[in-house]
Structure formats: structure tokens, C-alpha cells
Design brief:
Layout lengths: L16 H11 L1 H11 L16 H15 L8 E5 L5 H10 L2 E6 L2 H13 L6 E5 L12 E7 L8 H11 E10 L2 E2 L9 H7 L7 H10 L3 E7 L3 H15 L1 H4 L5 H19 L3 E2 L1 E6 L4
Parallel strand pairs: 1-2, 1-4, 2-3, 4-5
Antiparallel strand pairs: 5-9, 6-8, 7-9
Helix pairs in contact: 3-4, 6-8, 9-11
Length: 290
């Protein structure tokens, strides 16, 4: 997701400060309206675009479909954990197309209620369980999931290494962690991402080097990284263009201040991506057999 703007974090002993800030933001009426109506509907993450004018929803769904293909042939008996599930589009894709049983863990109760309502309307309650909670402390037993999945969510943690340790803990031996995350380039100069970091209330972003080293420390073996860095500025530019095109339509449903700050924030992501300071792609890691 990755466009958090200024919003006071309420203290919650279960959440680190960055996660609590993100939770408050995604629970806000402005954010819920923006992400559901503008960003991509069910899939609020970076898309794989075929051209600069493609519909956000189509490009975002292509990311889900491609990540699913990278898992091989998902089986109906697979247990999947989606860490930072948003509105649950990926969970529904896996459940509807492959019969997987998915646990959708997400910090925003507002998003989770929308997720549950869509699941009920499609008759997917028996396949998808939506949990309120943080990926820094995953509820559930060790060695439970065949796949841990995440899209553009890990950046919201101030304890990303802990998140990866939790992913490794709950994966079955031979299970796969597959995720995307907006990252800083391994050789990103100091200070150039400050405008982005200030808006999402973080001290840093992860990097490919960080994820490789942290996953290794968690006992996971890298399968590969599919680099799609050019899609990051393309996506944020596409979202900004959609917001500008629909600004009059959104008047009265999203505050003018939110729209102004969002356009500025999206611009920072576009600039950082075009400058080569940011990267994005699909990581896969495997938990070794016991």
C-alpha cells in the first residue's frame, strides 16, 4: 500500500509504533474511500502494467495472478497466510481459483470488515479467515502454512526482521515465502528518501540486501528475486493521474487536505523511482526441510 500520511498513532501494546500509525491511517474514512475507490478496489498494491494508461485494477490483479503462477500449481489443501491482506483480493483469488484455505491477517479493522463482507457475498467464508492483528506477532502454531504471502506491507513495520522471523516460524518445512515490498535501492544515497519516509512515519525502507540477509538469518533460502523496479514509478504515477482525473467526483467523500497531501506523497514515490533510488519486485524464499 505504502502511502501513509500524517495521522496520530494510538498506543497499543500489541503494535509497534509504525504499525500502530499505519493501523490508524488505514482505519480512517479518507484512506478507506481512497484505496477502495481509486487505488485498485480489492487489490491495493503495485501493479504489473502493460502500458502507462492501463486500468489500475487490471494491473494490480495481474500482480496477484503472476505471483500465483510463480508458486507453481496451488493445491486445494494448501494453507496460505497473507500478511497485510488489505481488502483480501489476493486471498479471494487463491480461494476462488485454486481452493486454497487462506488466513488474511491485517491490522486495519475497517479494511477487514470490508474483506469479510465481500467474502460473505461470494460464499467464501469457509475458505478465508480474516484476522485482526499484526504480522510482527502472528497468531498460530509453528509449521502451519504451505505459503506465506505478502504484498507491499512489510515496509509498515519498524521491526521487519521480526516479521520475517514470524513468517519463517509459521511456514511448514519446504514452504514458500513470497512477497513484494517498495524498497530502497541497495546503494541508495543517504537522505534522498526523507520526503517519503517523513510521510509514512518510518526511519527507513527495506532493501533487497536487507531482505536477503534477514531471511538468511531466519533460516530461509532464497529462490529468486524478479525485479520489476520500473513498475513502481509507473504505478504511483498512474494512481496520481487517476486521483487528479476524479478529484471533482471525490469532493465530499474525501477531504481536500487528504487529496492534496496524497498527490504530493505520490509524487515523491514517482520521483524516487525514476531517480533509481527505489526498487520493487517479487521475492521468493523457501524454508528447508527438517
Amino acid at each position: 500500500m505504502s502511502a501513509v500520511q500524517s495521522s496520530p498513532a494510538h498506543s497499543n501494546p500489541a503494535y509497534s509504533s509504525p504499525v500502530a500509525t499505519a493501523r490508524d491511517y488505514y482505519n480512517s474514512a479518507d484512506a478507506d474511500t481512497f484505496y477502495h475507490r481509486v487505488w485498485g478496489g480489492e487489490d491495493i498494491h503495485i501493479g504489473l502494467y502493460e502500458d502507462d494508461e492501463e486500468a489500475i485494477v487490471d494491473a494490480s490483479r495481474r500482480t496477484v495472478a503472476h505471483m500465483t503462477d510463480m508458486l507453481g500449481e496451488p493445491q486445494p489443501d494448501w494453507q496460505v497466510l497473507d500478511m497485510g491482506a488489505g481488502y483480501g483480493g489476493s486471498a479471494r483469488y487463491l480461494a476462488e481459483n485454486h481452493g486454497c484455505r487462506v488466513t488474511a491477517l491485517n491490522l486495519s479493522e475497517v479494511e477487514n470488515e470490508r474483506n469479510r463482507a465481500i467474502n460473505r457475498s461470494r460464499g467464501l467464508d469457509s475458505l478465508i479467515t480474516v484476522l485482526d492483528g499484526s504480522f510482527e506477532d502472528v497468531p498460530g502454531a509453528d509449521d502451519r502454512f504451505d505459503v506465506v504471502w505478502s504484498q507491499d506491507a512489510f515496509l509498515h513495520s519498524g521491526a521487519r526482521e521480526r516479521v520475517l522471523q514470524e513468517a519463517a516460524r509459521v511456514l511448514k518445512p519446504n514452504g514458500v515465502l513470497i512477497f513484494t515490498d517498495p524498497m530502497q535501492h541497495d546503494d541508495c544515497p543517504d537522505g534522498v528518501l526523507d520526503p517519503i519516509l517523513e510521510r509514512i512515519h518510518l526511519e527507513s525502507l527495506g532493501s533487497p540486501r536487507f531482505y536477503r540477509e534477514a531471511c538468511a538469518r531466519a533460516g530461509l533460502h532464497e529462490i529468486g528475486f524478479e525485479n520489476h523496479s520500473h513498475q513502481l514509478p509507473r504505478h504511483y504515477a498512474r494512481v496520481r493521474g487517476e486521483l487528479e482525473a476524479r478529484e471533482s467526483e471525490l469532493t465530499g467523500t474525501i477531504s481536500p487536505d487528504y487529496i492534496t497531501r496524497m498527490k504530493t506523497g505520490l509524487g515523491h514515490w514517482v520521483e524516487g523511482g525514476k531517480a533509481g533510488h527505489l526498487t520493487w519486485g517479487i521475492f521468493r524464499f523457501r524454508k528447508p526441510r527438517a
